[in-house]
Design goal:
- The protein is mainly α.
- The chain has one domain: Up-down Bundle (Four Helix Bundle (Hemerythrin (Met), subunit A)), CATH 1.20.120.
- It is 73% helix and 0% strand.
- It is built from 4 helices and no strands.
- Helix 1 runs antiparallel to helix 2.
- The longest helix has 38 residues.
- The chain starts with 9 loop residues before the first helix and ends in a 23-residue tail after the last helix.
């Protein structure tokens, strides 16, 4: 549920690392004034927090479904309840993230809005690259523990 404290763990830590990276590179990447940066901080934190909460909620339900299905104790009633919860998450998330993005857009001019979208896409691409490297493909980070991830690479100019 919204407002529940996020539990510690590798997923939580990964989200926190991404948030720290985004916040530390936000002002330069978007050419924000100091006043704009101060206004953007809570907005960007909110979108990052909402993404984390929805991902954690979705993962919790999926893990419970996997456990039930794997144990052979799944009932149609319980699975139905979990699917209903999962569908609720899936329908709530886009509206919440749209509200978050609308608030961010309202604080930026169109050029900065475009820079923010490109900045987020670059961050997502870097995360996928790191996940691939950590996923055992033989690249750097193959044997890294989830609680000790490599830092995000610096932004490319």
């Amino acid at each position: 549920m919204r407002g529940e404290p996020a539990g510690p763990g590798p997923g939580h830590e990964a989200f926190k690392l991404v948030e720290a990276y985004v916040l530390s590179n936000l002002q330069d990447s978007l050419d924000l004034s100091d006043d704009q940066f101060v206004k953007m901080l809570p907005l960007v934190k909110r979108v990052q927090n909402d993404r984390r909460e929805f991902a954690q909620r979705r993962m919790r339900v999926l893990m419970e479904l996997r456990k039930l299905l794997g144990s052979g104790t799944a009932t149609e009633s319980r699975v139905g309840d979990l699917l209903k919860e999962l569908k609720s998450i899936e329908s709530e998330e886009p509206a919440a993230l749209r509200r978050d993005m609308d608030a961010i857009d309202a604080a930026l001019n169109p050029l900065q809005q475009a820079k923010y979208r490109v900045f987020e896409a670059d961050v997502e691409r870097r995360i996928r690259e790191l996940m691939r490297q950590m996923g055992g493909t033989g690249g750097p980070g193959r044997n890294r523990r989830p609680d000790n991830p490599e830092p995000l690479p610096p932004p490319q100019e």
